[in-house]
Write a structure and sequence with these properties.
Blueprint (H helix, E strand, L loop, with lengths): L1 E5 L10 E6 L6 E2 L4 E6 L4 E5 L4 E6 L6 E2 L4 E7 L3 H8 L2 H5 L14 H9 L18 H9 L19 H4 L12 H16 L2 E9 L1 H18 L6 H14 L6 E3 L2 E3 L6 E3 L1 E3 L2 E3 L2 E2 L7 H17 L12 E5 L18 E5 L3 E7 L2 E15 L5 H16 L2 H5 L2
Parallel strand pairs: 12-16, 16-17
Antiparallel strand pairs: 1-8, 2-4, 2-7, 3-6, 4-5, 6-8, 9-19, 10-11, 12-15, 13-14, 17-19, 18-19
Length: 404
């Protein structure tokens, strides 16, 4: 029986998607629930599984096409096998056709490698794989892009041959035009919209993390042993931010037209850098969570964001955002609002610096904090005191446990 493989219902507010990669070719056998194709929306990559086992009889929409919910992507012949299809393909006409001198069969690649190849308009036959059975790894692609060979290759060409004679090769200036991915285009659209809509202003402070680092150092092993998850710094900042949001509700508010919406819940977005771009998974009701609950939930959504399997509902509805540029070495930055939220907290690198404590110069682990806020509804006084509250809670983390 023939089955139509259709584009599934798309997430709310998403009108279409881009077909980015088929994982099967026409004539190949597929197993039930095996992923057939990846569809990219503005936020997430959707997988389309096989509804039954059989043979992918026909592919109707190729890579790069824009599709909408209900479009027929392919035809699956249920219950058939690739071996059963072989005699049909061996008709007298096809048997008489001349055989190609050599068939180039590209090794299988992971979704991350395929996305990297697509982003740089590369064909997998260009690259020599160093993985098992000739599999192309991400490192192989990155190494190829850094080499001189990548600028003079067109898709379908065989893998390049390295020439040792540098004088014979020479060096050429080159450019490569690559279209933005849907996610990158959406990020650009939101950032420009935030800059044109909100009256953004940033205030700064610094925090001494001596006591947080001491507390974490004393209990991180027993914490992980008891709860099965690592104790990171983000849980301290998320809990401190939540307590500060309770004291300054306007920082937890959002703007809708000429109205200000005050939220009596605390859904914190945590910015996560992925191969496809920046994503902000939302962790719900952080005020109700223990440190272990938060770390566990953060690990789960971050893993799904990296794998491209996170759902649209996990990326929307936050009331406040935290971003950590410190993991990349940033000392100070001015983060951009994640609209319609009214504020975003920026964390930065921890650096040992000389500080004056009780009239003595001591070395302390310091971090600069930045709070970007929408000055249309948040006054400077509230923003400064909000950041000071976070500073006080982190410099005396016992207050987080006592709610004082």
């Amino acid at each position: 029986m023939s089955i139509e493989i259709k584009v599934p219902p798309l997430p709310e507010s998403v009108s279409d998607a881009t077909l980015i990669a088929w994982h099967k070719k026409a004539g190949e056998a597929v197993a039930r629930d095996e992923n057939l194709v990846d569809l990219e929306t503005d936020k997430v990559v959707l997988e389309v599984p096989a509804p039954a086992s059989g043979v992918l009889q026909e592919i109707r929409i190729e890579d790069g096409a824009t599709v909408v919910a209900g479009d027929v992507l392919a035809i699956l012949e249920e219950g058939a096998s690739s071996s059963e299809e072989t005699p049909k393909a061996s008709s007298p006409q096809k048997a008489a056709a001349p055989k190609p001198e050599k068939e180039v069969k590209a090794p299988k690649t992971s979704p991350a490698v395929r996305r990297l190849l697509d982003e740089h308009d590369l064909d997998d036959t260009m690259i020599i794989g160093t993985g098992k059975d000739g599999r192309i790894t991400k490192a192989d692609v990155l190494s190829f892009l850094k080499s001189d060979d990548s600028s003079n290759v067109t898709p379908g060409d065989p893998a390049p041959v390295v020439i040792d004679d540098q004088d014979a090769v020479g060096f050429e200036r080159s450019e490569q035009r690559v279209p933005m991915t849907r996610l990158r285009a959406r990020i650009a659209e939101r950032l420009i919209d935030a800059q044109q809509t909100a009256a953004m202003l940033t205030t700064f402070n610094e925090v001494d993390l001596t006591k947080v680092m001491s507390l974490r150092g004393r209990y991180k092993e027993s914490f992980e042993k008891q709860h099965g998850v690592r104790l990171g710094f983000m849980s301290f900042f998320a809990k401190a931010a939540t307590e500060a949001l309770k004291k300054f509700p306007v920082v937890n508010a959002s703007v809708e037209g000429t109205d200000v919406i005050y939220h009596n819940y605390y859904d914190i977005g945590i910015a996560v850098s992925t191969e496809r771009g920046l994503m902000v998974p939302v962790i719900r009701d952080v005020d109700q969570m223990s440190f272990a609950d938060f770390e566990r939930e953060l690990g789960d959504v971050a893993e799904k964001a990296q794998a491209g399997t996170i759902g649209m509902d996990e990326l929307t509805g936050g009331t406040f955002t935290i971003t950590n540029g410190g993991i990349f070495g940033s000392m100070m930055s001015t983060p951009i609002l994640n609209q319609p939220q009214s504020a975003i907290l920026g964390m930065h690198a921890i650096q040992k610096r000389p500080m004056v404590v009780d009239d003595e110069i001591v070395v302390r682990p310091m971090m600069y904090l930045a709070l970007t806020y929408d000055h249309r509804i948040v006054d400077g006084k509230d923003s400064v005191q909000f950041l000071v509250t976070i500073k006080q809670l982190l410099e005396d983390p016992g207050r987080l446990l006592l709610n004082i």
